[in-house]
Design a protein that fits this description.
With about 250 residues, the protein is an alpha/beta fold. The protein is built from 10 helices and 8 strands. The protein has one domain: Vaccinia Virus protein VP39 (Rossmann fold, 3-Layer(aba) Sandwich), CATH 3.40.50. It is elongated.
Length: about 250
């Protein structure tokens, strides 16, 4: 597909296995802000983490993504319809109550996305986008993760990553902004699960393609010294940054 920068198809299965799931309370909050819960569109759905979460409150979810590999690994649900597309949702005009983009907006053509969202949303419908920033566990581990993130693989991040680091606050969204309360994801992970998540980072994949596995392996050895037994569960906190509101 033209205009599609594919950063994740090569690791679609790992993405589905190791990426964190969004909290149900987020979807309950969003459902309370919209004029109904008949239909939601999740754009850039990836493996469908947000799409399946939306079924907690929405009767039907259309989930689109341009990556065939991501959709092949998507979480299946009888009320989620997956479609391979950039921004062409296939939804009838004015029939959706919510449009979402989870950890995906920074890759988008904003005019195309907002234009389709404006077409499909009914009056009073809401556009909601969110991302999660660098996770936190405890200071002794966090300092290693931050160094790896900013220094070891820092040069391998795409420029769009800065939008995530900024919590999407610098993205110009034509919405009447809601005062969204704070949310976070809390995930208990073993060491292999945590390292599996780290390895899904697009910058890590680029680093390994350029320099081999040694930077990742060195990071894994350093983390292991501070984690404890590999099977030890540690609480991993992912701060969520959410912007939502009606389109102007």
């Amino acid at each position: 597909m033209t205009g599609f920068a594919d950063h994740f198809s090569g690791q679609a299965r790992a993405y589905a296995q190791f990426r964190p799931r969004y909290p149900a309370v987020l979807f309950h909050y969003l459902a309370a802000q919209v004029p109904g819960t008949r239909l939601a569109w999740d754009c850039g759905t990836g493996n469908g983490q947000a799409a399946v979460g939306l079924t907690e409150r929405f009767a039907r979810v259309v989930a689109t993504d341009p990556s065939e590999a991501q959709l092949a690994s998507a979480l299946q649900h009888p009320r989620v319809s997956y479609r391979r597309a950039l921004y062409e949702s296939g939804i009838e005009p004015g029939t959706a109550q919510l449009v979402t983009a989870a950890q995906a907006l920074h890759w988008f053509d904003m005019d195309a996305f907002v234009g389709e969202a404006r077409r499909v949303l009914e009056p009073g419908g809401v556009l909601a986008v969110w991302c999660y920033s660098l996770c936190r566990i405890e200071r002794m581990i966090d300092e290693l993760v931050e160094y790896f993130y900013r220094v070891t693989v820092g040069a391998f991040w795409s420029p769009e990553r800065k939008l995530v680091d900024d919590g999407y606050r610098t993205v110009a969204l034509p919405i009447d902004e809601l005062d969204v309360p704070p949310f976070e994801m809390l995930i208990d992970m073993t060491l292999p699960q945590f390292l599996g998540y780290i390895e899904t980072w697009s910058a890590v994949q680029r680093c390994m393609a350029s320099r081999g596995r040694e930077p990742m392996d060195a990071f894994a050895r350093a983390i292991a010294e501070r984690w404890g037994a590999p099977s030890t569960l540690r609480r991993v906190k992912f701060p969520l940054h959410i912007r939502a509101g009606e389109l102007r």
